[in-house]
Amino acid sequence: MTPDQKRMSVLFLARWYPSKYDPMPGLFIQRHAEAVALHADVSVVYPHAIQEKGDHLFEVNTGEVHGVFTVRVFYHVPESANLFTKSYRFFKAVNLGVQEVVKKKGSFQLIHVNVLTRLGFAALYYHWKFKIPYLITEHWTRYLKPFPFKNRIHKWISRWVVQKSAMVTTVSEDLTQAMKNCSLRHRDYRVIRNVVAPFFYTFPLSENRAKGKEFIHVSCFTDQQKNISGLLRVIGRLAEVRDDFHFLLVGEGEDLEMLKQYARELKIPEKVLAFKGLLEGKALAETMSNADALVLFSNYENMPVVINESLVLGVPVFSTRVGGISEIIDESNGRLVEKGDEQALVNLFIEFLNGQFSFDRKKIREDALNSFSYETVGTQLVSYYQEILNR
Q1: Who contacts 121 (Cβ-Cβ below 8 Å, separation ≥6)?
Q2: pTM of the model
Q3: Cα 143 to chain center, whole Å?
Q4: Widest CA span of the chain, in angstroms?
Q5: Residue 335's domain spans which residues?
Q6: Mean pLDDT, to the nearest integer, of 165-170?
Q7: Which of 90, 140, 203, 266 could be stapled to 236 by a disulfide with Cβ–Cβ 3.0 to 4.6 Å?
Q8: Residues 282, 170: one domain?
Q9: pLDDT of res. 206
Q10: Same domain membership, residue 283 and residue 140
Q11: Which residues make Cβ contacts (< 8 Å) with residue 137, sequence separation at least 6?
Q12: Are residues 150 and 46 in the same domain?
């Protein structure tokens, strides 16, 4: 972009986003917005429902965060509220956020919807009223389930919103196909990868250890999806035949205490297993950088950001072949097993511990930076925006 070219103005509508209530949800959306902000003026509107009633039904918080003008609108919706009340307050919250953007930053040329369906409907309204084009980025794993929609009306509106959009992007080819299988058809689907925060780039490559390999698992500890119980059984079986490894389980979630108890029932020695709890930001990056491999044994996934983060750190990934993971993991940067195949994972660990294969960590990092950096993904998104605006 030459100095005399005006930066385009983009509005992100976010279904999930970090907030004072939880700093984790929607980090991948925030990072997309920050990546775009390298090349365009970006504002984000994030409506967040709360059950506790404050002094006002709607609370609008604004601020500049890493170059992104961010508007979070917290709105009160009691658990007993009916569908009309929930919908009315949601769309009012969105509109209050958009009004705040226009007041502080001026008009915008394009809307980037992150996660269907209601925000897509809001974008469709602005498209009709002001002739502003919108595109959609979908992150949700719900399309991988047999019945992703609440009812026929929900399904019909989702199809309508998708069809009227200028473009649909997903974070994996697998998710694209899943959406098409749900009859969410569009003439222009693209893949846009999740980005990795720049501070991950700064950690030095860890040296491969000849003995005492360190494995790390990072997740939200939902066992139905992440199958951590299956991973614990694998660790238990591996511990029966050798002790030259250590597993670090990082995160917290609804099944954490149950899984700790299950590890005790399996009698896994403490010297080979530790539950680290939640780590964020640079603390997480530093801990991951010291691992010999990231391990995921999920039953289903979309495209976990933690995989991209691991690769940027030069850490290979051992995972199940689910979701879009096979699109970025091959024998140069990891290994894949079929979901639920505990024996295959045991065998994989034994081969790795025996030194039967290894990885070029420098090459893993270089390839990952070429795919998942702010500059790469931000440039790609802005090229999509420009393409849409030039139509």
Answers
A1: 157, 161
A2: 0.92
A3: 15
A4: 67
A5: 198-371
A6: 98
A7: 266
A8: no
A9: 78
A10: no
A11: 29, 32, 112, 113, 114, 115, 168, 169, 170, 171, 192
A12: yes
Residues linked to residue 64 through DSSP beta bridges, in sequence order: 69
pLDDT greater than 80 at residue 211: no
Within a domain: 231: yes
Across residues 55-59, what is the average pLDDT? 91
Looking at the fold, whether 216 and 167 belong to one and the same domain comes out as no
Residue 210 pLDDT more than 80? no
Q: Write out the two tokens for 213.
A: 């390999």
pLDDT band for 212, please (50, 70, 90 cuts). confident
The secondary structure of the chain in percent helix, strand, coil, rounded to multiples of 5, reads 40, 20, 40
Q: In one letter, which amino acid is 387?
A: E
233 within 8 A of 199, measured Cβ to Cβ = no
Same domain (yes/no): 152, 268? no
Token pair for 182: 């749900």
pLDDT at 145 over 90: no
The predicted structure's pLDDT at residue 2: 40
**CATH no. for residue 325?**
3.40.50.2000
Query: What's the structural domain count of the chain?
Result: 2
pLDDT digits 0-9 by tens, 251-288:
999 999 999 999 999 999 999 999 999 999 999 999 99
345 part of a folded domain:
yes
pLDDT at 368: 97
The count of C-alpha atoms lying within 13 angstroms of the C-alpha of 197, restricted to the half-sphere facing its C-beta, is 15
pLDDT of residue 1: 41
Q: Are 107 and 126 in contact (CB under 8 A)?
A: no
Give the contacts of 230 (CB within 8 A, at least 6 positions apart).
Answer: 297, 340, 342
360 and 233 together in one domain? yes
Q: What is the DSSP letter of 336?
A: E
Do residues 307 and 225 share a domain? yes
E strand intervals along the chain:
9-14, 41-50, 58-65, 68-76, 110-114, 134-138, 167-170, 189-191, 213-218, 245-250, 273-277, 293-295, 317-320, 334-337
Instruction: Answer yes or no: is 4 within a domain.
Output: no
- Structure tokens belonging to residue 342: 């505990």
